[in-house]
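Onboarding guide, step 5: your first structure request.
Type a short instruction followed by the sequence, for example:

Predict the 3D structure of this protein.
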Amino acid sequence: MGPGSAILADVVELPVSVGQRLLSLMDHYLGEESALNEQVLWRIEGQLDAGALRVALTKLVARHAALRTAFVGNGRRLRQVVHEPSPVALAEADVTGHADPDTAARERVSEEMRRTIDAATSPIRPLLIRIAPATHLFVLTMHHFVTDDWSNGLLSRDLRRLYAAELAGADDGLPAVGWQYAEWSEWQRERLSGAGLRELTEYWRHQLDGARIPELPERASAPGEGEQPWVSVELPIGPETTRALRDLARRERTTLFPVLLSVFSLLLHDETRQRDITVASLFANRGSPQVADSVGFFVTMLLLRTDLDRDSPARELVRATRKTVLAALRHQELPYQLLPPGTISSRTGRADDITFQLVGSLKAREDLSGAEIDDMEGMLERRRFAFEFVVAPHEDRLIALLLCDRQRFDADWAARFVAGYVAVADALAADPDRPAGDLLAPQRRTT
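The system replies with structure tokens like these:
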């Protein structure tokens, strides 16, 4: 039993988590509707049992209380209300009559992502799209209040197992959910109070003393006619480089994230001439084992600071970045937004102007039949930051993706930046013992 199990049973109004309140503020001040929508997609090839899918969906919502949580009030009065499990309605759409059903289905998915969700009523909007007699697309659009990328992966796993178990009349074999999200929220409130809050605040104030967000070259112009409001650039990092970077991570007893962040820091240094590099990144914030299989908005944003020495071997930069990331993980419960004002300097006043992410994949999670759907369009629809650099594995290689505000960043410059990232990644993979600055040699630069 978690700290709020008894409360959950009473189904009363509860305070929201820190992350949910921050999301609410972002929605209020930025007004980016799609920023607060999330989606999980499954393409179902072959015979579909719609009845079994509805039962599985109802069981999924019963399993994860976050999916049946409504939100009332606003600002500091925002509250979450967990409802009792009940049958879930599944809307249906048929695009088989369109000249190009697949395109029509994708347009419907994009429409669902853009359309706001009334979280005061329900945080989810499930839809089944019929593309052909034996091809369907299941779309679960959710308010960001109740899910994050980790949770989306859990939902994909759980619904596939629940559906398969319903078809076979067997046990689903799913692990028990430890804490429901409202229980974790209560634990978080205790952690972010008193001595716990003082400890976390002291660490981050010391870590970020004097830090400032790099100032990338910007332009001040509106998008041209017919241009999207954001720039997106995608380039692959080849299989050989990908293998070498993974090998480097193993030799340095770390994950791929610090290796790829080191490349990003080097490129930011090359663009800004700053040695002291600080960027934002999203962390899963699941340090408690009780929430490994819980669905909700756990993710938190932290600031990662690197003091870059051009003359030291690039391997040393990876080691220093590893230490930074490990320390951040130990203090991930406090998002940077709760730090005292003025903790970090930024041209715009926002510390998340430059973000770096390593995500699980740029492909949608496995669907009910084991196939996959390209999830790139979903990422574009939910852009949230002025400059977001994402790296994701895809088959035997990595994909580097930059999403940035066209009003602030030139498209040609953005393309050169991504090409530069790939070039520095190649150079690091080829010889991590070279001085870090040498990886930015003129023949490798794109400017």
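Each response can be followed by summary notes, for example: The CA atoms of residues 72 and 79 lie 5 Å apart.
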